[in-house]
Amino acid sequence: MVNKVLITGGTGLIGSRLTELLLERGYSVAHLSRKKQKKSSVPVYQYDTAKGYIEDGALEGMAYLIHLAGAGIADERWTEERKKVIISSRTEPINLITSKLREKQIFPRAFISASGSAFYGGDTGDRKHTEDCPPGNDFLAEVSVLWENAADQVRELGVRTVKLRTGVVLSKKGGALPKITLPIRFGLGAPLGPGTQWMSWIHIDDLCRMYIEAMENDSWEGAYNAVSAPPTTNRQVTIAISRILQKPQWLPPVPAFALRLIFGEMAGVVLGSNYVENYRIETETNFIYEFPQLTNALENIFKP
């Protein structure tokens, strides 16, 4: 029998690539979505948290559950209403799924949930964080804490649960990298803010392989920092991209106050410094990164 993997947020940046890799490995993949997809390479089941509804057949026969659903952190300014959406889009789907799993007495072999490396705070300076460090107390930390608390409901059903605290995902198809790269392509590259702030990152393929490893390997359990080592600075990222694209990097840093005027509180996403270490990945697992260094990750992404 082919193992069925059910993914929430399966059409997003990570979910799309993860779906491709799972299908290549012979898994049966299905997506759980708020909207029915007109064109999809896999079955799509609908859910509605307001109505407490999950389409029949979604959970049945499921071997693994992966939770990626969540409104984009940097898609819109952080109004109070937007903050509620960011949190509820991550917690309410898993609240509903947990309720249905309990009701139907369906228990997958493993549950893998996304979380954020900002669990430790959106701006933690030069402090190094491993998985046993306490959470921060700002909005981004609150999002991750509530996200993980929701995921723990599945763990309480007796399901092995893994939470991947994900850093900045490097991909040419979305996320932060295309936004960082755009001005560089026009010869207008410049560090954002001081440029010294730490960025903990991971190549999208390494992240998706990490999800699969966490799914397949029974020794994985609890929270892991899903980042590569070592972290890099905003300035180093700008310089590396400029070199690979053979573009000049001569402009002075974009002032932090200008970014705050443009983006408001959300400017903390690019101005915040996060030095997150992949301690448990390195010491407790046999996971091998395909792109462990920033340069080879970027070269792979920007290759012709």
TrEMBL record:
Gene3D superfamilies: NAD(P)-binding Rossmann-like Domain (3.40.50.720). Coiled coil: none annotated. Belongs to the NAD(P)-dependent epimerase/dehydratase family. SDR39U1 subfamily. It comes from the Bacteria. InterPro entries: DUF1731 (IPR013549), Epimerase_deHydtase (IPR001509), NAD(P)-bd_dom_sf (IPR036291), SDR39U1 (IPR010099). Pfam families: DUF1731 (PF08338), Epimerase (PF01370). Residues 5-218 form the NAD-dependent epimerase/dehydratase domain. Residues 254-301 form the DUF1731 domain. It comes from Dyadobacter helix. This is Epimerase family protein. SUPFAM superfamilies: NAD(P)-binding Rossmann-fold domains.
